Amino acid sequence: MMLVLKKDTLSLLDPLDHTPLHCQPIINIRVWGVGCNNGRDRDFAFVAGDKDSCVLKCHVFRCDSPARTIASALHEMCSKMMSDQTLMRPSRSLTMDNISPEDLPRQVEFLEAVRQQEQKFDVQYIGNLPVSRAMGMEVLNRAIESILNATDREEWEPAVIHVTDHILSLWRGEEGEEPLWECQVRLLTFLGVGHDCHTFAVICDGGAQRFEAHVFWSEPDAGQLSEAVQAACMVQYQRCLVAQTPPPRMKSWSVTPKVKRRSSLPPLPPLPPLPPLSRKGMKAFLQTFRKQAASS
Predict the structure, then answer these.
(1) What pLDDT does 63 receive?
(2) What is the pTM of this model?
(3) What residues make up the domain containing 179?
(4) Which residues of 182-221 are buried (b: 16+ CB within 10 A; e: fewer)?
């Protein structure tokens, strides 16, 4: 099949008659990526919400050419879409308070975390441990299983996790003076729900290529908690796009003068010749000049 990026849609076409097989609005794509360089650089995938079931689905492709080209083109289209929306609203300041909910993907209704300044979830903090990589469900699931096997349920600490569009923090209760743990949303590298739907974990960047996984237990399941944290990450992503969008150029208006200017003035018409003086007139003129000279 053929993958076509046009305007605001990603389309899959039949290579023979170009019949549309699937059309995906780009605004509903949650994330995309390419494979690693060790033989997987032609693999391309994206995650998007299904318009009928509102379930997230991952679409994976093996391309004839390096998949980084598709990812770059998709990034440019997203940047252009944000730039166009910014130009349509030039008088509004570029802050999260002014980003319309229509600007964000909304298939799973995760924008509730954005509309509310802070969300709180009762959880049990299972623990944390260092991990080898910054992302990947395999890494996350291994971390969850390791912590579950190493701790007893009685050791889990009841807490309240606070989710905002800036910080993820864990508190013992409403009266806690300092959080047990906190992490800026921009430092979250990966998140997900484990094999058990009650388990939720995030991977944080600790700097110097150090990554740490934090695992939680949520009732009745971790779905709402996962969507709230994902919404906060999406807000940060949108802010990055807005920050990378160049400011609109102000048009310089030039006033065209109504009076046409000419490069040079037209030549003056020649003066008419003076009539010739007669001899009598010339003699009279000379006599007058001599009298004035003698008197002076």
Answers:
(1) 86
(2) 0.49
(3) 112-244
(4) ebebebbbbbbbbeeebbbbbbbbeeeeebbbbbbbbeee
